[in-house]
From TrEMBL:
Protein name, per record: WD40-repeat-containing domain protein
Chain residue ranges for the region called Disordered: 42-108
Compositional bias (Basic and acidic residues): 55-73
Spans traversing the lipid bilayer: 12-33
Keywords tagged on the record: Membrane, Repeat, Transmembrane, Transmembrane helix, WD repeat
Family according to the record: Belongs to the WD repeat G protein beta family. Ribosomal protein RACK1 subfamily.
Length: 1379
């Protein structure tokens, strides 16, 4: 028996194990990489890899088109396909694409990958999109895209080139493949290209394809590692200043096939595979490609790449659709790129294919179901590229715009309203048509006329005429008392929605506007007009004139809004390349006349009441003849034989008399015809006689036109009644008709009965006699409407108080308010729609669910009880029905308003009782602080709105509003009427805010660099802004329109100021000059030269005669504003002067300097009357008290000093800030001083005692500017934290910043690390959503986090969540335990 040497046994066993491992690794590799992987690559051709390191990046990447029968002229899209593991590029004799120079940082010296067209019969002229396929590691085209029949190796199908497959599905697309050096092995002497180098080479090759310079849209198909190279290429292309930006913008979609964005699921085997692949590689004198490292489990490189691409994609301003497919079947060993590996956060729903990894880019034929899945997705993306955006998503977004559905001329509400009879208004309609067709005509036609002259009938006729011609873009028929049809805020969104419907090419651009700002419909009218209408129209080529019809503009709510709409519409000709024609009708009310006066020369107009009377009488006669003949024929069709009206009824004299009574009111003629035609009453002849009885009264001027129009109808109600019957009937009339004419929105008979707490039958009986003046529907659930607003005017006219049909507005508004409140007590309750999930969005709630919970009368009560309360002018008292309603149902009401999309109705409620006033104040603060979330998620009124509000009403901090820019805020200013705040920012914009609501009323865009200074004109109408772009702009504060751009400075503008008479603007610049401008014309009237360094501050004297300027040249100069002569040069500072101010009596000038002093100068003589010394660091800001007696100065020494201007004595040193003071301001009553500091706070001081009465905390960065409102009640502060805050300056308000129901500590003492568990809630656990805005329970949004409470870091322990905020706060919240 032979013996075995132990060492030999070990060696043998080791070899056996090693051999097994090698066999296993090879098996793994065979699964990963088909047989061609192991064959030695062919010798490098001139187009292939080279051993010359200097040339390696130039020549080892080429691309070929996979469908060479398709060329640039007969395709419409390039489909770039990037393939995956398994094949290598085929040999090719095609010449490389022409080389282009690349940027310095590119390693590809001359040329990139070469594209090969699969369908060369398609060229650029007959195609519009390119499909480009990119393969993965160790593959080649066409093998990587080719399926091989296992039973017949000769049966092969390349789905990119097969004429039954992709070319057939997309006949007007060019299809390309591209080959990059994807070999698994490389020669040892070859320098391996990195993913970034491959990406740059890929970009260069794609850019070299024919037609690329024309921005042809691209769809990519990327397989495995090819997808990683592609997203790296996209990141590079999207970099600012990249030479490949056009390719990034041209990319309309990407289909990823088994791309391992998060690495592979077999990292250990991947390591083993690399280890054992070294063996055959060394045998061949080669080494394994470094690129295989990128397929391991998620590496820092891969994490960074995916993160960069995700951020780049989110910042993209054009649509680009992504689709991800992953495998579900394991290969030889185990699954490779599964749903976890193929996941991108920006693609929420990756698509599974039941196949193994090596099959993911191969399909057996046109009937392969997985081919249909991939091609179907490509089809959707290509369709969306051609249409600009997914149709359904775009429509859904556009449908989300709040619109007035009944405002269009062809809406159901307008369906039965009259159009002009063919024999009437012929000359006028012809004139309107000529205006619309004139390419040189004005863009606006204003048709005005007094009530009842037929304006709306003309509007409907014009709209119908242009609609029939296909030229009507949109229409909006305002109507007072019709809810949304009176709201200016819905005007432009409604117009935009209709324009998109009629001009589909606008869809993409309107969708982009909504994408960019989901709240655009709540923004200022100017922003709505520009973003939803003018900018989208600017992208569309539309040859024919497009008509917009706007009827009854005088019935729009809000006089200021009316003027703004007129001003904006008048800009259409200058702003829009599309030939817009805007036809407007209105009464000639004062706000309308003023609005058109401000746009003189930009419109054409015509007054209906100025049309010659004979023409009007003729038209009314034609209308009467036609309508009365129709009434006659209708009556005769039902009359007994022998009782018919004669065929010549009524005779010409009657028609003439009626027409003369009517002129110029068409509403008279229409009402008479309805009255005469009213069935169930006396015969038409008798009713016509009743009307004619008023003829003599009219001639005697005892009755006005409306009396003549409506009294014949109403007097029939009381005809031959006893006094008691008459009194009862009139009371019933007022109780029914009074509410109807005062309703803010029409209601049906059923809803009216419930609202008024009466029987529907009684209402119907009362209305049955009023068909001549009210549109009374046939069904109980259709709304009752006024035929014409003049009927309401007639009934509520105060001059008719003694008339029996007069209706007391205030009395019936009070009754409506009371009934609304009673209904709310009946319906309101928590979670009225049964949503259950606190974070459920309103958009996810079916309208039928809302309607079932809140029937029409309850919806009306929710929306309009405040309106009726305000119009009733009643005094509120503690313990009143209003007070009781809010104590019982405040949150329920807010929830219901949110469900109805009307949360804004809760702001601005009247309150004049002590307790209820404080209650309303708190309501307003809750709504304003949580507006954005309550508006979209109704149940957050019980969650976020409460959690992040103080537990006690006295615990509110002083901040009313936080208003955000996207960069530092440099300057803030109140309008002199205290209603507005202007802020200038590094984000290049000026924003105007409503100081009461915090709503941004205007975003003034136009500067090309940061805005350093803003100022209101003393009349509050204009805003001036100075910018680093070397210009000053003057803006209309109401419309946001830039009225002047003042150019002339050659360096930054650092300061602007209006003269007190609003006529002049002064600007100081780093170009060392001060310029004075005429605010009306924009002409530079004076250039004040003399400073030898930057001008940092300018100020007008209160009498407008002088200008003071402070400069870095250490001087202050006083100039004559009229002549530009330098009156005084005030020398004495020995460092730059950063702030100057005139005393209110114009006699003194104060200057603050970096030399740590304040100087007071006599403005007339230039003598320094006081040098105020005491600060130990730079003085950054000075201000006079309004009574000229005191001067306040803020310094980098962290103090504010108050000085006696006459004696120079420091009366107060205000200490408390912990960093330099940047800005100081006196209150207009001289009692308070506000200071803003780099310590992130604003402090309010008593000027007499020096006591700090308030410390206003809330900013998270420097406070750079503070200002008091002219009424001394509010303080505005602008900060480097990108916000403006408005604070209540009154005493008694808590001076601290409270943190709701949370604990405030230094978060570093509480949290030493944060947990990813908070980011990814699973099952029913609590956690924080990926966007950081929501605390989630499982997959449901649960609690919304305001911006100041969002996590910088977080941790979760069971049902308790700790959040560390960037401000230094820590929130600890405990939720009910999850069962």
């Amino acid at each position: 028996m032979s013996s075995v040497n132990p060492s030999q046994g070990i060696t043998l066993a080791g070899r056996t194990i090693a051999l097994c491992l090698l066999v296993g690794a090879i098996a793994a590799c065979l699964w990963l990489y088909p047989a061609p992987v192991y064959s030695k690559p062919a010798p490098a051709s001139p187009a292939g890899p080279t051993s010359d390191p200097a040339r390696s990046t130039e020549q080892d990447v080429r691309a070929r088109q996979a469908s060479p029968d398709k060329n640039e002229a007969n395709t419409d899209t390039d489909i770039d396909i990037i393939h995956g593991l398994g094949t290598k590029p085929p040999d090719t004799n095609s010449k490389p694409a022409p080389a282009r120079p690349t940027s310095d940082h590119a390693r590809s010296a001359c040329q990139g990958v070469r594209l090969c067209q699969v369908n060369p019969d398609k060229n650029e002229a007959d195609t519009d999109i390119d499909i480009i396929a990119i393969h993965g590691l160790d593959t080649k085209s066409p093998d990587t895209w080719t399926w091989v029949d296992p039973s017949d190796r000769n049966n092969k199908v390349n789905w990119l080139a097969d004429t039954r497959m992709l070319p057939a599905r997309f006949p007007i697309a060019r299809i390309f493949t591209c080959d990059w050096p994807a070999g698994l092995f490389k020669e040892k002497s070859t320098i391996q290209m990195t993913v970034k180098e491959l990406a740059r080479s890929l970009l260069l090759g794609i850019r070299s394809r024919p037609g690329a310079d024309k921005g042809r849209p691209i769809l990519f198909i990327a397989s495995c590692l090819g997808g990683l190279i592609l997203i790296q290429a996209m990141v590079i292309a999207a970099e600012p200043g990249s030479e490949y930006t056009s390719l990034w913008r041209a990319t309309g979609g990407v289909v990823f096939l088994a791309t391992p964005f998060r690495g592979t699921a077999f990292q250990d085997i991947a390591r083993a595979a690399i280890l054992f692949l070294e063996v055959p590689a060394r045998l061949a004198g080669e080494t394994v490609s470094d690129l295989l490292d990128n397929l391991k489990a998620s590496t820092p490189f891969l994490q960074d790449l995916v993160g960069d691409f995700t951020r780049t994609y989110k910042q993209r301003d054009q649509p680009c659709q992504l689709a991800i497919f992953y495998e579900t079947k394991p290969g030889n060993l185990l699954r490779k790129v599964d749903s976890g590996s193929a996941r991108l956060d920006i693609v929420p729903n990756p698509i599974a294919l039941e196949r193994a990894h090596v099959e993911m880019n191969k399909f057996s034929g046109p009937n392969d179901p997985d081919f249909h899945a991939v091609a179907g997705r490509i089809d959707i993306i290509l369709g969306d590229i051609r249409n600009g955006y997914p149709m359904d998503e775009a429509d859904a977004l556009i449908s989300s715009l709040p619109v007035a559905h009944e405002a269009a001329f062809d809406s159901h509400a307008e369906e039965h309203n009259a159009r002009c009879h063919p024999d009437t208004r012929a000359e006028l309609l012809c004139q309107i048509r000529q205006w619309a067709d004139d390419p040189h005509g004005e863009s606006v036609f204003w048709l005005n006329g007094m009530a009842g002259t037929g304006k709306s009938t003309i509007s409907r006729t014009v709209a119908k005429s242009f609609a029939d011609d296909g030229r009507l873009g949109a229409s909006f028929f305002f109507k007072k008392g019709e809810g949304d049809r009176g709201k200016a805020t819905l005007f432009f969104p409604t117009i935009a929605g209709q324009l998109v419907h009629r001009i589909p090419a606008l869809r993409r651009f309107v969708r982009e506007a909504i994408d960019a700002d989901a709240a655009i419909a709540r923004k200022a009218l100017k922003d709505q007009f520009e973003k939803l209408i003018i900018e989208p129209i600017g992208h569309v080529h539309h040859v024919t004139a497009t008509m917009i019809v706007v009827d009854a503009l005088d019935e729009c709510d809000g006089e200021k809004d009316v003027g703004t709409i007129i001003s904006l519409l008048a800009q259409a000709k200058a702003l829009s390349p599309m030939r817009l024609r805007i036809f407007i009708t209105s009464r000639p009310e004062l706000p309308i006349r003023l609005g058109f006066k401000n746009v003189q020369g930009k419109y054409q107009d015509l007054a209906l009441h100025q049309i010659p009377e004979p023409i009007v009488e003729r038209d009314i006669s034609a209308f009467l003849a036609h309508e009365l003949a129709r009434i006659r024929d209708d009556y005769n069709s039902q009359a007994l034989e022998g009782l018919e009206l004669p065929l010549d009824w009524p005779d010409d004299d009657v028609i003439r008399s009626l027409a003369q009574m009517a002129v110029p009111l068409f509403i008279f003629a229409a009402t008479v015809c309805r009255f005469v035609h009213d069935k169930g009453r006396s015969n038409p002849t008798n009713r016509l006689k009743k009307v004619l009885e008023y003829r003599m009264a009219t001639h005697a001027s005892r009755l006005d036109k409306l009396d003549t129009t409506y009294l014949p109808v109403l007097n029939q109600l009381t005809f031959e009644r006893t006094d008691q019957d008459k009194a009862d009937l009139l009371a019933e009339f007022r109780d029914v008709v009074g509410p109807i004419v005062l309703l803010a929105q029409p209601l049906s008979v059923r809803s009216l009965a419930r609202l008024l707490n009466t029987k529907a039958e009684d209402i119907h009986c009362q209305l049955n006699s009023l068909h001549s003046v009210l549109s009374v529907p046939q069904t109980i659930d259709a709304p009752v409407r006024l035929f014409h607003l003049s009927f309401r005017d007639f009934l509520v006219d105060p001059t008719k108080r003694a008339k029996e049909f007069w209706i007391d507005e205030t009395q019936y508004h009070q009754k409506l308010a009371d009934r609304c409140i009673q209904l709310l007590h009946q319906y309101l309750r928590r979670d009225i729609c049964g949503l259950q999930v606190p974070g459920k969005l309103r958009s996810e709630v079916d309208q039928r669910t809302i309607d079932a919970a809140l029937p029409p009368e309850a919806q009306y009560a929710c929306q309009y009880w405040v309106h009726h309360l305000r119009e009733s002018k009643c005094s509120l008292r503690d313990g009143s029905p209003v007070h009781n309603l809010l104590k019982s149902h405040l949150l329920h009401w807010l929830e219901s308003l949110s469900l109805l999309g009307r949360i804004s109705e809760s702001v601005g409620m009247p309150a004049n009782a002590i307790e209820i006033s404080g209650f309303f104040r708190d309501i307003r603060r809750v709504v304003l602080s949580s507006w954005s979330i309550i508006d979209i998620a109704p149940l957050q009124v019980y969650a976020s709105a409460l959690v992040f509000s103080p537990a006690r009403k006295d615990d509110w901090n002083a901040c009313w509003q936080t208003m955000e820019h996207s960069d530092y805020v440099n300057s803030v200013a109140f309008s002199p009427d205290s209603k507005l705040v202007a802020s200038g920012s590094y984000d290049k914009t000026v924003k105007i805010w409503d100081a009461a609501t915090g709503i941004c009323t205007q975003t003034l865009e136009g500067h090309s660099d940061c805005v350093r200074s803003v100022a209101f004109s003393p009349d509050s109408k204009l805003v001036a802004s100075g910018s680093h772009d070397e210009t000053v702009k003057i803006w209309d504060a109401a419309t946001g329109i830039c009225t002047q751009t003042l150019e002339g400075h050659s360096d930054w503008v650092s300061s602007v100021a209006f003269s007190p008479d609003s006529k002049l603007v002064a600007s100081g610049s780093h170009d060392k000059t001060v310029k004075i401008w005429d605010a009306a014309t924009g002409i530079c009237t004076q250039t004040l030269e003399g400073h030898s360094d930057w001008v940092s501050s300018v100020a007008f004297s209160p009498d407008s005669k002088l200008v003071a300027s402070g400069s870095d040249d250490e001087t202050v100069k006083i100039w004559d504003a009229a002549t530009g002569i330098c009156m005084q040069t005030l020398e004495g500072h020995n460092y730059s002067v950063r702030s100057v101010a005139f005393s209110p009596d114009s006699k003194l000038v104060a200057s603050g300097s970096h030399d740590k002093t304040v100087k007071i100068w006599d403005a007339a003589t230039g003598i320094c009357t006081q040098t105020l010394e005491g600060h130990s660091d730079w003085v950054s800001s000075v201000a006079f008290s309004p009574d000229s007696k005191l001067v306040a100065s803020g310094s980098h020494d962290e103090t504010v000093k108050i000085w006696d201007a006459a004696t120079g004595i420091c009366t107060q040193t205000l200490e408390g800030h912990s960093d330099c003071v940047r800005s100081v301001a006196f209150s207009p009553d001289s009692k308070l001083v506000a200071s803003g500091s780099r310590d992130k706070t604003v402090k309010i001081w008593d000027a007499a005692t020096g006591i700090c009465t308030q410390t206003l905390e809330g900013h998270s960065d420097w406070v750079s500017s503070v200002a008091f409102s002219p009424d001394s009640k509010l303080v505005a502060s602008g900060s480097h934290d990108k916000t403006v805050k408005i604070w209540d300056a009154a005493t008694g308000i808590c001076t601290q910043t409270l943190e709701g129901h949370s604990h405030s500590v230094d978060f570093s003492t509480l949290l030493t690390s944060w947990s990813d568990d908070a980011k990814s809630p699973t099952h029913q656990d609590y956690g924080i959503g990926s966007d950081g805005k929501w605390i989630m329970r499982g997959l449901e949004n649960w609690l919304w986090l305001p911006s100041g409470s969002r996590p910088g870091c977080s941790a979760v322990a069971a049902s308790t969540i700790a959040i560390g905020c960037s401000s230094g706060r820590v929130l600890i919240m405990t939720f009910p335990a999850v069962s």
